[in-house]
Amino acid sequence: MNFEIEIKLRLPPDVSKIRRTMRKLGFRVAVPRSLETNVLFDNPTNPLGKQGKLIRIRRVGRDNVLTYKGPSKSVRYKKRHELEIHLSDADVAEEIFKKIGYQPVFRYEKFRTEFVEPSERAGKVLLDETPVGNFLELEGTPRWIGRTAHRLGFSQADYITGSYGSLYMLYCREHRIHPKDMLFNSVSKKPEPFRRKQP
Known about the structure:
single chain; alpha+beta; eight-stranded antiparallel β-barrel; 6 helices
């Protein structure tokens, strides 16, 4: 079975410092900064959500991915059974879900940059810029996650295992916003494109 093991780490609004830190530690960009749009599906009685499961369609440029995730099986880390398949047409997949009674229940966006260490294959670092803040996601083995978080200046007290949906709901409660979808044009100003400073 394929399992995804991850944590999130909250970042300040300016992500230039963490980018510099990762470069110094030997991390390199594996996938450039790209806008992701995600749609979660469920039926009106919310059976997937009640079980901690999700079905998601993610669009990144011309790439479309259908993902199933099972309930989390860990406390310190988020460990979930995950299955993914690439789609040739995300719109048709959405229409199929609607025909069988599954509707979009939550949409969210983020800019994601993927970093890896060329000499290390145990995990990857994902820099996510979202409408409710910036985060690092560390995905890999528990040992690699713990070691990498420490190298980046974080401790276990900083680990976040909640989903972006739960972080969005918390943000809405704190800011007294009626929750809808976590989109840049409805929550906060869209981040400026990242531009590398000239030396």
